[in-house]
From TrEMBL:
Named cofactor requirement(s): heme c
Signal peptide start-end: none
Gene, per the UniProt record: ccoP
Chief localization: membrane
Descriptive protein name: Cbb3-type cytochrome c oxidase subunit
Localization per Swiss-Prot or TrEMBL: Cell inner membrane
Length: 319
């Protein structure tokens, strides 16, 4: 913080406290010209105003808050660049990346100079670390049937994954539904964990320049017909011959390919919308979905539990 803003904040903070003190002192003085306890000769609807002083308990409480404000600003950061007599910090300042935050935390642990964030992280690791370590030693299939493990996995999911996939994990446009057993990169425990650990980057190319608008219409008609949709048979027939360029990823039968994250076109489940217009837009402009990697954010032990929770959502459903 620059010196100007440091001084500005300090003046406002201390000036406010001083102003409250002066206002209180002014209110404690009788400037009405009427003796305390006497009638002020004001009445409204039968209610008479009496010149009474401020209640003693109220005055004492006001003084206490003023003194507390001064003590707080002296002990803790709050006056611009002044760090406070206790040297307390909420966290490592000027951190710009997760890696830098972890390095600063490790340095704090080594030096024994912990700020509030580092103390909270250290306390959490000491308390919950053994729990996550124990869960990480168990198979995902076993955890997926353990109610207590699933509660922990669900909390982690709600904190980190629900922003995209929804609190019920049913996804939204552009974000997969995790409950329907329709998987882009595979739905086995190992494949789900790999997706969470490493992330995924989808790459559906745009075909408007290669196929032209008419060619895209034909391919879309054929793709929609694969899931039993009613389409123009002439367009679908023409699209079948053009589908060879799509088969490299989606397969000759259109059932997708886990290796590329290419969706199954035969099940009528559409990530970006299944209307003819939405599918046209996908083929014309392409899609580039990104699933972030969570190994450096949550760590493998927590990812292990989230994997079990996600895997459990589709257990017992038809593949």
């Amino acid at each position: 913080m620059s010196s100007f803003w440091s001084i500005w904040i300090s003046v406002i903070s201390l000036g406010t406290i001083l102003g409250c003190f002066l206002l209180l002192r002014w209110c404690l003085k009788n400037k009405t010209g009427v003796k305390e306890g006497d009638d002020m000769h004001h009445d409204f609807d039968g209610i008479v105003e009496i010149n009474n002083p401020l209640p003693r308990w109220w005055t004492i409480m006001f003084y206490v808050t003023i003194v507390w404000g001064v003590i707080y600003l002296a002990l803790y950061p709050g006056l611009g660049n002044f760090q406070g007599l206790l040297g307390w910090e909420s966290s490592n300042q000027d951190i710009r990346s997760l890696e830098a935050s972890r390095e600063a935390h490790a340095q704090d642990l080594a030096n024994g100079n912990l700020n509030e964030y580092s103390r909270s992280i250290a306390a959490a690791e000491e308390r919950f670390g053994p729990i996550f370590e124990a869960y990480a030693k168990r198979d995902i299939e076993e955890l997926a049937r353990d109610p207590e493990a699933l509660k922990v996995g669900q909390r982690l999911f709600l904190q980190n994954c629900s922003q995209c996939h929804g609190s019920d994990a049913r996804g939204q446009r552009g974000f997969p539904n995790l409950t329907d057993h329709d998987w882009l990169y595979g739905g086995s425990p190992a494949e789900i964990k790999q997706t969470l650990m490493e992330g995924r980057r989808g790459a559906m190319p745009a075909w408007k320049d290669s196929l032209g608008e008419q060619g895209v219409k034909e391919v879309v008609a054929y793709a929609l017909s694969l899931s039993g949709r009613k389409v123009d048979p002439d367009l679908a027939e023409a699209g079948q011959s053009r589908f060879a360029v799509c088969a490299a990823c989606h397969g000759q039968d259109g059932q997708g390919n886990y290796a590329f994250g290419a969706p199954n076109l035969t099940d009528n489940i559409w990530l970006y919308g299944g209307s003819e217009q939405a599918v046209m837009e996908t083929v014309l402009e392409g899609r580039n979905g990104v699933m972030p990697a969570w190994k450096d954010i949550l760590g493998e032990e927590k990812v292990h539990l989230v994997t079990a929770y996600v895997y459990s959502l589709s257990l017992g459903k038809d593949e």
